[in-house]
Amino acid sequence: MSSSYVILGAGVIGLTTALELRERYPQANIIIVAKFLPGDRDASYTSPWAGANWLSVATDNGRQEEWDRITYQKFKELAIRTAEVGVYAMPITAVYDSEIEDAGVLSTGTGKIWYDGLVGGIAMLGEERLPEGAKFGYELSTFVVDTQVYLPWLQGEARRQGIEIRRGMFESLDELFTAFPDANAYFNCTGLGSYSLKGVEDKSIYPTRGQIMLVESPKTTMTRMYFRSPQRVNKDTTYVFPRGPHNGVVLGGIRLDNDWSGEVDLELAEDIKQRCCALAPELGKPEDLKVIYHGVGLRPSRKGGARLERERFAEHLVIHNYGAGGAGYQASWGMARGAVDLLQKDSRL
């Protein structure tokens, strides 16, 4: 008899976990059940509102760096099929308004930027290329993700591989166990939903509100991403992420911890325009930007970092995979591998 697995949640973490499960257990019966699915627009369904790209925030010299390493390598494979998948190889210019020792980019124990070798080398910017007020910066080869293409691709790939996807809402783990009594394991990929999901009710998780806008691609073709911040993770972060050649440009942003509001702040939107145009000259003047839409997403942040853990409820095995905050995309494949590894007790991740 084949194994059966249920995944609760269909954001980037849930969908990626399902595909990792299928890769490792090709004969298994896999079901994704979720309140929100790709195409839905709700602030608490975080994945559609992400930038998104790969610029690691990990500095733990441990599992978080490993998650990001695995995902970078997977994105490298996926970028070959850009039109289909929505993952594009693109360099980024990142500048910081703090000295490098204070910017949150150096790995614990090594004192270095851990992904230097992974990305094929980091090129530090000379002073003449730093904007006013910036202390240091660098360029590297990485990836941008068009979430409006990538999320539906993940969903479609899951269905092509025989994974069933259902829309459904569960207020407790007990309801999930009752609905799917024969599952060998249940994967909790509910993100911010784990705050209120009965049986979990993790009060270490909290929202980090973000706000972005998608604008039309400028006349000047954009061939790189831009990032500026006092530290790698900071409230006042500015980023410009082109979504391929024709799918517009994402402008952001903000990081507001413990802010549950899903409403667009139009005053903040104007500030984002100003900051992004100052950072990326290709955009032109703020007043000339043509906004396609504004978006607000609530990142599932967690005190102590993401939860990747197995938990036994009588005869039911639950594997928790949530709380990546703003790193969901760039850690997704590594976290999925770690979650599936947890089906075996001796997992390292």
How would you explain this protein's 3D organization?
Residues 5-341 form the FAD dependent oxidoreductase domain. Helix content is 23%, strand content 27%. With 349 residues, the chain is an alpha/beta fold. It has one domain: D-Amino Acid Oxidase, Chain A, domain 2. The strands form two sheets. Strands 3, 4, 5, 8, 9, 10, 11, 12 and 13 form a nine-stranded mixed β-sheet that branches. Strands 6-2-1-7-15-14 form a six-stranded mixed β-sheet, with helices on one face. Helix 1 (12-24) packs parallel to helix 7 (328-341). The longest helix is centred in the N-terminal third of the chain and has 16 residues, at 63-78. It is globular, with a radius of gyration of 20 Å. The two termini are 28 Å apart.
Short descriptors:
alpha/beta, D-Amino Acid Oxidase, Chain A, domain 2, 9-stranded mixed beta sheet, 6-stranded mixed beta sheet, 7 helices, 15 strands
Series of H and E elements: EHEHHEEEHEHEEEEEEHEEEH
The CATH C-level name is Alpha Beta
CATH superfamily: D-Amino Acid Oxidase, subunit A, domain 2
Low-confidence stretches: none
**CATH architect. name:** 2-Layer Sandwich
Q: How would a crystallographer describe the biggest sheet? A: 9 strands, mixed
CATH topology: D-Amino Acid Oxidase, Chain A, domain 2
Rg, please? Answer: 20 Å
- Estimated share of beta-strand residues: 25-35%
Rounded mean pLDDT is 96
Overall body shape:
globular
Distance between the termini: 28 Å
Relative helix content: 10-25%
The total of helices stands at 7
Domains (count): 1
Which secondary-structure class do the elements indicate?
alpha/beta
Keywords: FAD, Flavoprotein, Oxidoreductase
Cofactor: FAD
Domain FAD dependent oxidoreductase: 5-341
InterPro entries: D-amino_acid_oxidase_CS, DAO, FAD-dep_OxRdtase
